[in-house]
Design a protein that fits this description.
The protein is 26% helix and 36% strand. By secondary structure, the protein is of the alpha+beta class. A six-stranded antiparallel barrel has the order 1-2-3-6-5-4. Strands 8-9-10-13-12-11 form a six-stranded antiparallel beta barrel. This is S1C family serine protease.
Length: 405
């Protein structure tokens, strides 16, 4: 008995010859192609063009590889209108140092110490002297004031005058080293949304000459001010609102427009963790008359009545009827707590616990209303009609305004 494979050899030899013949034919055709067709391709230049394209592609790849390496530095001029304006205005914005004398307990002698820093603006130079405007609170309580110029030169300055209600002060110093005076603009035509630039010394002289840019956020804002820190507003300052960053130390610095003109004196900022981008400046149009009066007179003279007053809203409603005997139709006013002897109010017959409700026919709801009428509409020597209530009865009198000392 034989195996199945021993009867199958003829078919296996036929399968082997099936792949050998095509292989031999392919080899013969390849040799003929190389020996006959290659010289013809070289003669026509086709291979040369292919080689040239490959070389060009290789060069392009090398160029891209080189470009991904270190790049050559290129100097670009980034000067703009803003940088030009800053270069022009910056020398006119200075630092202001508040120096106060303190007693050294151990050595029993006075020593000068720096009590605070702020900013200021050189607005005038005449007869060898330069004048700087800053904030009242920057120089408040100072025994000596130093002005620090843009080149870090320290110059002693005299305090010419200061005003609490406007938060403005004027300094006078030697003008020999002063080269730049700021150009005064106008705050009357300032528009919401236009560019605004603040220049000053945030956080002290370490960051002197700092510049922040923003826009005018509002043109007619009023901010309550509490001068004696008793929790009650004593005055409402009219200010320009901007989102240009204004930090402690910027106070007294310049708020300028895109032309480099002074439009406001930076004064304060709402320092709350939930509030950002609220900076305020005193409009230059309202500041200029006060600056001029401080420069010439050393103080701002305002008319006064000679009374200590408080807003009626601070009195419990039960006292309106039981103590002040006010009619039900009275919704606001100021009550007189004391009357200064021989003052205009004393001469006109006002007494303690009188309630003033009108001045010159204009309603007075609180002491801010009263002060605005006196300070913004009246002058020393003017007469003013006063409507008030005493023991529930309406009365009127005329007071000739005196000078506040």
């Amino acid at each position: 008995m034989g195996y199945y494979d021993q009867h199958y050899p003829p078919k296996r030899r036929k399968k082997k010859s099936g792949w050998l013949v095509p292989l031999l034919l392919g080899a013969i055709l390849g040799v003929l192609l190389v020996t006959v067709a290659l010289p013809a391709l070289v003669d026509t230049g086709i291979l040369n063009n292919v080689e040239q394209q490959q070389n060009e592609q290789s060069s392009a790849n090398d160029s891209r590889n080189k470009s991904s390496g270190p790049k050559e530095m290129v100097n670009v001029d980034v000067s703009s209108q803003i940088t030009e304006v800053i270069n022009q205005v910056a020398p006119a914005v200075v630092g202001v140092i508040n120096i106060q004398s303190q007693m050294d307990f151990w050595q029993q002698q006075e020593e000068n110490s720096q009590a605070g820093e702020g900013s200021g603006v050189i607005y005038k130079k005449t007869d060898g002297s330069a004048f700087v405007v800053t904030n009242h609170h920057v120089v408040e309580g100072a025994d000596t004031v130093e002005v620090v110029l843009s080149d870090d030169t320290h110059v002693k300055a005299d305090l010419v005058g200061t005003d609490l209600f406007s938060d403005l002060a004027v300094l006078k110093m030697d003008g020999d080293q002063v080269e730049q005076v700021i150009e005064i603009g106008s705050s009357a035509n300032v528009k919401t949304g236009e560019p605004a630039i603040a220049i000053g010394n945030p956080l002290g002289l370490m960051f002197s000459g700092s510049v922040t840019q923003g826009v005018i956020s509002g043109t007619e804002r009023t901010i309550p001010q509490d001068f004696n820190q008793d929790g009650r507003a004593d005055w409402q300052a009219e200010v320009i609102q901007t989102d240009a960053a204004i930090n402690p130390g910027n106070s007294g610095g310049a708020l300028i427009n895109i032309r480099g003109q002074l439009i406001g004196i930076n004064s304060m900022k709402i320092n709350q963790t939930a509030v950002e981008g609220l900076g305020f400046a005193i409009p230059i149009d309202s500041a200029l008359p006060i600056i001029e009066e401080l420069e010439t007179e050393g103080k701002v003279t305002r008319p006064y009545l000679g009374v200590e007053i408080y807003s009626l809203e601070e009195v419990p409603q039960t006292e309106w009827d039981s103590t002040l005997s006010l009619p039900d139709n009275i919704k606001g006013g100021v009550y007189v707590w004391s009357v200064e002897p021989l003052s205009p109010a004393d001469r006109a017959g006002l007494k303690r616990l009188d309630v003033i409700t009108e001045l010159d026919g204009k309603k007075v709801m609180n002491m801010i209303d009263l002060r605005k009428i006196l300070y913004q509409e009246k002058e020393v020597g003017d007469e003013i009609a006063v409507t008030y209530y005493r023991d529930g009865k309406k009365r009127e009198t005329t007071i000739q305004l005196g000078e506040q000392n």
